[in-house]
Amino acid sequence: MKTSAILTAVLLSTPLMAQDAAVTPSTPAPAVEMTKQARQHLQLTRNILEVLRELTGTLESVKDQTTADTAAIKVHEIAAKMHELQTQADSYPTLSKEQEKLVKSAINEQEVQETVHNFLVSIVQIAQANCYDSPSMNQALGRVLSKAAKASANATN
Description:
Blueprint: H1 3-23, H2 36-60, H3 65-91, H4 97-106, H5 109-128, H6 135-156
Helix pairs in contact: 1-2, 1-6, 2-3, 2-4, 2-5, 3-6
């Protein structure tokens, strides 16, 4: 499973994971050490979250057409970072089930939920304001959202 798939799975299944934790009896798992590849996946996941927080902060700074035009430049830069991270994720080897579990357990679920929630709120606010009539912001967001859709599609394959 690629890191983007891990992050997508965490993002999409966080309510389910909370339910699973309540239903699954706690049995001690055998001590398995995280491999170098798993640590790379974990770091990449953290980097993806950081880029998502950066994007959210940029979108939250938009208040009118002028700030939207200015922020669009930054959004394009963030889209390029997202592309780099996706390329990096695609190059990583698939992890074993045990290593996937270790990576997922090392990810702060609440942090992921808050980050995604804040991102979605910022996207909705920009969309409701019609990107503040900024063609540059509209184009930049289209680029970001197409990258996210592509990553999500790759994660489900």
